[in-house]
Design a protein that fits this description.
- With 473 residues, this protein is mostly helical.
- The chain has helices at residues 2-24, 35-46, 66-69, 75-83, 85-91, 94-103, 116-131, 151-183, 194-198, 201-224, 242-248, 253-256, 271-278, 289-299, 317-336, 343-360, 388-394, 400-403, 420-429, 444-452, 468-471, and strands at 28-29, 33-34, 301-302, 307-308.
- The strands form two sheets. The chain has a two-stranded antiparallel ribbon. It has a two-stranded antiparallel ribbon with strand order 3-4.
C-alpha cells in the first residue's frame, strides 16, 4: 500500500514536472536543480557508462525509473549510492549489494563532490528522458529549424483574383453589349456568353502570359534556392554523434576534418581516421556493437582478433558475416551474462548484420568492403568558389561560425543558409585579424592606419571581400 501511494505521488510529481517543461522550459527545485544542468552533468559524468535513452543497459544499468527501484529506502540512500557506491557495498546495504551482484566486477565511479542540487538535476533529466521517450521537448538554448510554407495563401489569393477577374470580364462584356445595342438597335448582336468570353483572344493571351511569368518565377526561385538546405539533417549510414565526439570527448574538429586548415575542402575523414581510436574502443556508448561494427566491416578489421583481415577485398560475404556474427554474439553473451546465444541474441545478431549490409551496400556498391558512403549535407553550386583554408588558417575563423554548435548536435544538420547574401553580410561585418598574422603583412597602409588611429578595424570588404571574382570564376 505504501509503495502504491508513493508511486501515485511520483506520478503526480511527474505531471507537475511536465507542466513546467511545457510552460517554462526547464523546471527548478529550490531555484537550483534543473533539467538543463542535469543534462550537462549527465553528459560529463554519467554518459560514458549509462545509455542516454535511459531504457537500455550499457556498461552500467539503464537509469530510467531509478527512483522507483529505491522506493523502499530513504532518499538519502540513493544520494549516497550515487556519490560513493563502493562504501555502501562495503557496509552491506541490501540494495547496494544487490546491484553489485548483478553487475560485478564493473564498479560504479564515485562522485563524492556532487551536491544534493546536482543529484536532483541528474534525476530530473533522467525522468525527463525516460518519461518523454519519443516526445520532442524544447529546452532553453535548443535550436530547432522549422520550415513553414505560406504557399496556401498565394493559392487562395490567386483563386480570389481569378474569380474577380471573371466577374469583371463578364460585367465589361455585358456593358459592351448594352452599348452596342444602343448605338445599333437594328442590328442583331449576339449576347456574350461566359464560355465565349473565357476563350477570347484577350483572355487566352493573358493566361499564356501569366503562365510564362509563373514558370519564369519558379525557375529563378529554384535557381536561387539551389543548395539552400538550412536545417537539412539526413540519416547517415552510421549513427555518428558529433555531440559525443566533439562535445563529450572534446575531439578537435580538425583532427577528423584535417583538410580544413590546408585545402579548399574540409574532407570527410577516411575510415583509417576512425580506427585511430576505435581499434581500442570497440563498443559505442550508445549503440554498443551496432554502429562500430559497420566501420570494422567497411575497412576489414576483425574485432575478435584485433587484426586487419588479409586480402579482405576478395573474401566472400558469408565469411564476413561469420566474423561479425561471432563478434556480436560474444559481446551479447558478455553483456547479458548468459551461457550461450538465446533467441533474443539470435535476433540481435540477425538485425545488426542486416544493418551492416544495408548501410554499406547499394545498387552501385554491391560489396560490403570499401569506403563508407556518407550523405553530403553542405553543398554549394558549382559556380561558387569557397576555400576552407582561407577562412580557417588565414581568417582564423572557428568552425562554429558557419556550422553552428556541432558539439551539441547528435545528428548533424546544416546550420547556416549558405546563401550569397549571408556570405556578403559576413564579409561586410567581419573584422580581419591583422595582429600577428603574416598573411596580411602586405597591407602596409591599413597597418599604418590602425596604428595611427585613423581606422579602428579592417573588414573583409576593405581587402576585396566583395569583389565578384573572389567567389565566382
Amino acid at each position: 500500500m505504501k509503495k502504491a501511494f508513493l508511486n501515485l505521488r511520483k506520478c503526480l510529481d511527474y505531471s507537475v514536472l511536465l507542466m513546467f517543461i511545457c510552460f517554462l522550459g526547464s523546471p527548478s527545485v529550490n531555484g537550483q536543480a534543473s533539467i538543463e544542468s542535469g543534462k550537462e552533468i549527465f553528459k560529463n559524468q554519467c554518459a560514458a557508462c549509462h545509455n542516454r535513452n535511459m531504457k537500455d543497459d550499457l556498461t552500467g544499468p539503464a537509469l530510467g525509473g531509478v527512483e522507483e527501484r529505491w522506493v523502499d529506502y530513504p532518499q538519502e540512500d540513493l544520494y549516497r549510492w550515487i556519490r560513493n557506491s563502493s562504501a555502501m557495498i562495503a557496509e552491506g546495504h541490501p540494495r547496494a549489494v544487490e546491484i553489485w551482484n548483478n553487475w560485478k566486477p564493473v564498479a560504479m565511479t564515485s562522485f563524492t563532490s556532487l551536491s544534493d542540487e546536482e543529484i536532483e538535476s541528474i534525476l530530473l533529466y533522467i525522468n525527463d528522458q525516460f518519461l518523454n521517450a519519443g516526445v520532442a521537448i524544447a529546452l532553453p538554448g535548443a535550436q530547432e529549424v522549422v520550415k513553414r510554407s505560406n504557399n496556401w495563401l498565394y493559392y487562395i489569393l490567386f483563386v480570389i483574383l481569378a474569380v474577380v477577374a471573371a466577374i469583371l470580364a463578364r460585367i465589361i462584356a455585358n456593358l459592351n453589349y448594352i452599348s452596342a445595342k444602343k448605338e445599333q438597335p437594328d442590328i442583331d448582336i449576339e449576347k456574350p456568353t461566359l464560355i465565349g468570353m473565357l476563350t477570347s483572344k484577350g483572355v487566352v493571351g493573358f493566361v499564356i502570359f501569366a503562365l510564362i511569368v509563373a514558370m519564369g518565377y519558379t525557375t529563378v526561385t529554384n535557381g536561387i534556392d539551389f543548395g539552400r538546405q538550412q536545417g537539412y539533417a539526413p540519416e547517415q549510414p552510421i549513427k555518428f554523434s558529433h555531440e559525443t565526439h566533439a562535445g563529450l570527448h572534446k575531439i578537435d574538429c580538425q583532427y577528423c576534418h584535417d583538410g580544413a586548415r590546408r585545402s579548399k575542402h574540409s574532407v570527410i575523414p577516411a575510415t583509417n581516421t576512425c580506427m585511430n581510436c576505435h581499434k581500442a574502443i570497440k563498443k559505442g556508448s550508445s549503440y554498443g556493437t551496432q554502429e562500430l561494427s559497420k566501420i570494422f566491416a567497411s575497412i576489414g578489421f576483425n574485432p575478435n582478433t584485433d587484426n586487419y583481415i588479409d586480402n579482405y577485398d576478395a573474401i566472400p560475404e558469408d565469411s564476413i558475416r561469420a566474423i561479425f556474427s561471432k563478434w556480436i554474439g560474444d559481446e551479447y553473451i558478455k553483456d547479458e551474462g548468459v551461457a550461450g546465444i538465446d533467441k533474443k541474441g539470435e535476433r540481435i545478431i540477425k538485425t545488426q548484420w542486416e544493418n551492416i549490409k544495408e548501410s554499406l551496400t547499394n545498387p552501385l556498391k554491391p560489396k560490403i568492403q570499401g569506403p563508407i558512403e556518407w550523405v553530403r549535407i553542405h553543398h554549394l553550386p558549382d559556380h561558387v568558389y569557397f576555400n576552407h583554408a582561407q577562412h580557417v588558417t588565414v581568417g582564423k575563423l572557428e568552425c562554429q561560425e558557419c556550422h553552428g554548435k556541432v558539439e551539441e548536435m547528435e545528428v548533424l544538420q546544416q546550420y547556416s543558409p549558405l546563401s550569397m547574401g549571408w556570405c556578403i553580410n559576413c564579409h561586410r561585418q567581419t573584422e580581419v585579424q591583422f595582429t600577428s598574422n603574416e598573411y596580411y603583412n602586405a597591407y602596409s597602409d591599413y597597418h599604418e592606419a590602425l596604428k595611427s588611429g585613423d581606422k579602428e578595424a579592417v573588414t573583409v570588404e576593405d581587402i576585396g571581400g566583395l569583389e565578384c571574382q573572389k567567389c565566382h570564376y
